[in-house]
Every structure is written in C-alpha cells, then in structure tokens.
Design a protein that fits this description.
single chain, alpha+beta, 7-stranded mixed β-sheet, two-stranded antiparallel sheet, 11 strands
C-alpha cells in the first residue's frame, strides 16, 4: 500500500527561509498581523487532514470511480468522498483564503496553495471537487454583481456549495471562439441558456447541496469569435430570494467520461436546456472574467503535478531502501543480506533525484507565484502590485506546463524504480502516472501554454516582463558571483541568463518573417525558460543552505538541499543546450513534411 507524509520541513524552508513569505505579506494591510507560528500551525493541521482523511480514499476511489443515475442525472462520488468533504467543510478549509466579509478567514493565497499541494498528493481526484470552487469564488469576487456576490460568495466560502467552469464543447477544445452555447435574454435580467459542455471536472456530484456553474455562452447579437463570448452564473438549483434552494435548474449531467486517470472525479458532459443564468460582468467580456478562474486553475494544475511528484517520490524512495536486487558495482553494501538495496545503484538514484529535484523546484516556483498573487491583490504600493501581476502572468504558463511535464516524467521514473511491481495497482504507482498524465492536457494544453509564453508574455511586450525576472536572477548572480562555493550553481545560471536574450531575439526575428517559426520553437522555448526559473530558485536555495551551514547548523536538511541542487545543475539543467538547438532548427523540418504525413 502507498504511503504519504506531508513535506512540512521543505514547505517551511521555502516559505520562511527562501521567500520570507510572512515578511513580504506583512506589508499588505490584510496580512499585517500574520506570523510564522500561524503559518506553521495551519500547515501542520492541513497535513493531518490530507494524510489522515483524503489519502486513505485515493486507491479505493480510483477503483470504484463515479456512478451516474441516467434517470435522475445525479452522480455519486466514490464511497467516503462525501464524508471526507463534510469533514473538510467542518474544519473551515474552504474559507481559508476567502475574504472575511464573505465568512472567510482572510489568510494568504500562498497558504491555500500549500494546503492544496498536500491534498493533491493525498488524493487529486477528491481534491478537484473543492479545488475549482476557489477559482469560481475569485471570478465572482472580481466580476460579479453585488447581488451575485451576496448570493454565491458566502456559500462558496463555507463550502456548502461548490463551483465549476463550463468552457469546452464537443466541437471545440481550446479554441473557445468556436463555441455555440446560446443565452437568450428574458427581460427580467435573467437569461435562458442552451448548449452542451464537455470535460467538466466535478460538474455533478453528491458532496455539496448546490453547484455553481460559470458558463461561457453567446448572446443573440454576439459577433463570431472570442469577442462574442459572455459569462453566466448558472446554479444547479435556483436560489430563492431568502437564499434557500429552489427548483432544479435546466442543467444536468448527460454522461460521465471514462478516463485514463482521476477516476474518483466526475468529469461530466453537461447539458443545458433553457437553464436560468445571470450575466457576470459585461456582455462580450466573458473570457476576461473567466480568465480569473482559468489562471487560478492553471496554477492549480501545476500544484496537482507537484503533489503527485512528491507522493510518488516518497514511495519510490521507501521502496528503493527496502527492495534488494543484485550487488553494488563497487562491492557488497549489505553484507548481511543476499543482495543490496536497489538504492545503491547509480541509475536508481538518478530516478529518485530527478523526482526530488522536480518536486523541490516546483514547490519554490509555485509558492513564489502564490506570494505574487497575494501582493498583486493586497500590496499598498501600486508599482509592487503591477510588477507582481506582470511576473505572475509570465510565470503562470511555466507553472502549468513545465511543472506538469516534469511531474509526468517524475511519476514515470518513480514507477520504474518499482520494476514490475510498479504496474501492480496495490503499490499505487501506476495510479500516480495515470493521474499525472491529464495535467499536461487540461486547462490549456502545454503547447498552448508554450505559445502563450512565447507569443504573448515574451514577444508580445518585446521581452519587458522577461527582463523583470532576469533582473531577479541577475541580482542573485551579482551577489553570489564571487562566492567560490556557489560557483557550481551561479555559473550555469549566469550563462543561461546571457544566452536567453540572444535566443529570444533570434526566435522573435524569425517569427516576424514566418509565424510558424514561433509555433515550432514554443515548446522547447518554454522548457528553456522553465530551467532559467528553476535554476534561479535552486541557486537561491543553495545560497540559503550554505549560509545556514556556515553559521554552524548541522541539520542534514541543508546538506540534502545542496546535494539536490548539485544534481539538478549537473543532470537536468544541461537539457537547455539541446532545447535551444532544437528551437533554432526552425519550422521547415516540421512543416515541409507533406509526404511524410500523407
């Protein structure tokens, strides 16, 4: 059976020793009274819930899956999911980072992200039920009318109701400009919405009393394309004036997708038949409003892969220490046994360290992104808010695509550590691989994220935002460049930083002449950018660890951190050389291939 222990020590290291999250957030008026002890106490309790309540349901939930009653259109989640959600609500976890005026605890988003990392390690499928609710809360908080806020935000905050986002339709995936769902105005401020949505995570379930769907649709006079899309809030049950639940609305689950992974989550085909909804924000501005939820979801998907990477690593490490196979190449290590534990073999260590490095790099990046989100919302200095928003926009596609690509690679490596046992369900490893695979696809495929990074976030403003991140890395290089003990971390970071400007310019010039050049280069470009970001964080973490050791600390945690950073720069970071060569190869080898693809 698999096991899981919340990685509280590494979380605390990143939050307190690397990012000084509390110190940064104390500058924001809502968090002025925040302290480290509060952070740590919440993390500890969150870890107990994740490991003790959500994790034991992961394997059984995957086996059982969800059940649809085709007569009533009701979906039943796997056994134990509803009871676990009730405990989640009773513990006040949905309210953690919601505003006090809606009944929330008003704690920082970064703390909520750490909660969700642990929940994703414990049970990604279960976590998706409450997971989308916070994005729905943020979208309505930013763009909802006073009536919508009063009606929905307190219930989303308490967890009594959950939320979804209904975007994709059978004939369109990422290209939402093709959607056909129609919204007819009724003269009383409401709309009747008709259409079909697919791939709707947690679209129907029995965990909460109501489900608040955010639905993209077209008004009758809407132009074609994405500019004609509006956003509507469509509850499963209509809400009476006094806040009580009324009649069943005209939205129901028409079918469940039978998926490769996340079996415990209901991925629904949603049918809307004259469903009653109300407009969120302005007509034709639906995508702008929905992007609040979509961007939160993209960070959340990165967090899902971080969670899976962490739990897969923990199980592979434990197995490698116990499983005996062959002898070490340098002679027997366990002389009292007929063979050595497989952790003595170099390639097993490569697989384990790969997963460990991908987890620790992702944790640093995602915590950094969450602090940026908190500062964008609450910092009193307008420039800090603006800079935080710019950096977060730049890093979001990396947080989604780079982390999920690495997460799938890491879970595969961890399964490989188990050998033949990795394929056996009871060990849990094959489920981690299956669950991790979807994260590269939904909330915008990783190719779409790459195009967004290169086209919009980098070339779209002539690299201005990329230069903001480069200044962060440059400051670290300048501060540590004369420290010989940091050379193995700083030198490759500095070299890539110098290469990045020329590399970006070259791709940009070629893309101006032929847009396919951007499409051909985007995926390797994002991975190079991802390594620039991870390289910065690993160098920063190594710097902190070295300073702690120099100050007299004998905590092996810091030695381990240095060893992981050393492995990352020696074994994973050099991928950038190959990636830049591939990106520079251009589009011809891809596009001049009609015969090969005939």
């Amino acid at each position: 059976m698999p096991q899981y222990a919340p990685p509280l020590r590494d979380m605390q290291f990143v939050l307190h020793e690397v990012l000084d999250a509390v110190g940064q957030l104390q500058a924001c008026p809502p968090h002025a009274e925040l302290d480290v002890d509060t952070f740590n106490a919440v993390l500890e309790e969150a870890g107990k819930f994740a490991a003790g309540v959500a994790f034991p349901l992961n394997l059984s939930g995957d086996t059982e899956g969800c059940t649809l009653d085709r007569v009533t259109h009701e979906v039943r989640a796997p056994r134990g999911f509803k009871e676990a959600y009730a405990q989640y609500v009773e513990g006040g976890w949905p309210a953690l980072a919601c505003a006090p005026e809606h009944g929330g605890q008003g704690l920082p988003f970064v703390l909520n992200q750490c909660l969700y990392e642990m929940l994703n390690s414990a049970n990604q499928a279960w976590t998706m039920y409450p997971g989308l609710s916070h994005g729905a809360y943020e979208a309505l908080h930013a763009h909802g009318s006073p009536m919508q806020k009063a009606t929905y935000l307190p219930k989303l905050t308490s967890g009594e109701w959950t939320g979804t986002m209904c975007l994709t339709e059978p004939h369109c995936g990422t290209d939402l400009g093709l959607l056909r769902t129609k919204a007819e105005p009724q003269g009383d401020g409401s709309y009747r919405i008709t259409g079909e949505k697919i791939f709707i995570s947690a679209g129907e379930h029995d965990l909460a009393a109501n489900i608040v769907h955010l639905v993209l649709a077209r008004l009758p006079d809407a132009p074609a394309g994405s500019k004609g899309i509006s956003l509507f809030v469509v509850p499963k049950f209509l809400v009476n004036a006094d806040g009580s639940l009324g009649a069943r609305n005209g939205i129901h689950c028409g079918g469940l997708e039978h998926k490769m992974g996340i079996h415990g989550n209901a991925t629904c085909q949603m049918v809307l038949e004259d469903a009653v909804g109300t407009l969120v924000g302005e007509p034709g501005k639906g995508l702008q409003a929905m992007f609040v939820m979509m961007n939160a979801a993209r960070l959340g998907v990165g967090n899902q892969s971080l969670g899976l990477t962490e739990v897969a690593f923990q199980n592979a490490l434990a197995y490698a220490k116990e499983r005996i196979q062959m002898r070490s190449l340098t002679g027997p290590k366990a002389t009292d046994k007929p063979a050595d534990p497989i952790i003595v073999h170099p390639d097993v260590r490569r697989m384990l360290l790969t997963a460990k490095a991908w987890a620790e790099g992702a944790r640093a990046l995602l915590c950094f992104c969450a602090v940026l989100a908190d500062k964008e919302l609450h910092h009193p200095d307008e420039k800090v808010r603006s800079d935080s928003a710019d950096l977060l926009a730049l890093l979001t596609p990396i947080a989604k695509a780079f982390v999920t690509d690495n997460g799938f690679a890491a879970t595969n490596e961890c399964l490989q550590v188990f050998g033949g046992h990795g394929y056996i369900k009871e060990w849990g490893m094959e489920q981690f691989v299956r669950d991790a695979r979807i994260n590269m696809i939904y909330e915008g495929t990783n190719t779409v994220q790459s195009l967004d990074l290169l086209g919009r976030k980098v070339l779209g403003n002539s690299g201005a935002t990329l230069k903001k991140f480069a200044r962060l890395a440059g400051a670290l290089v300048e501060a540590e460049g004369v420290n010989e003990k940091m050379a193995e971390f700083i030198d490759p970071l500095a070299q890539l930083g110098e290469q990045m400007t020329k590399f970006t310019t070259e791709i940009g010039v070629k893309a101006l002449q032929n847009p396919d050049e951007a499409g051909a280069a985007a995926v390797p470009y994002l991975r190079v950018a991802g390594h620039l970001v991870y390289g910065y964080f690993f160098a920063l973490m190594a710097s902190v660890a070295l300073k702690k050791i120099a100050a007299g600390s004998t905590d092996p945690f810091y030695t381990a951190k240095l060893q992981t950073a050393r492995f990352y720069f020696a074994r994973l970071f050099p991928e950038t050389t190959m990636l830049m060569r591939a990106a520079r190869a251009g589009s011809a080898a891809l596009m001049d291939t009609d015969a090969a693809l005939a």
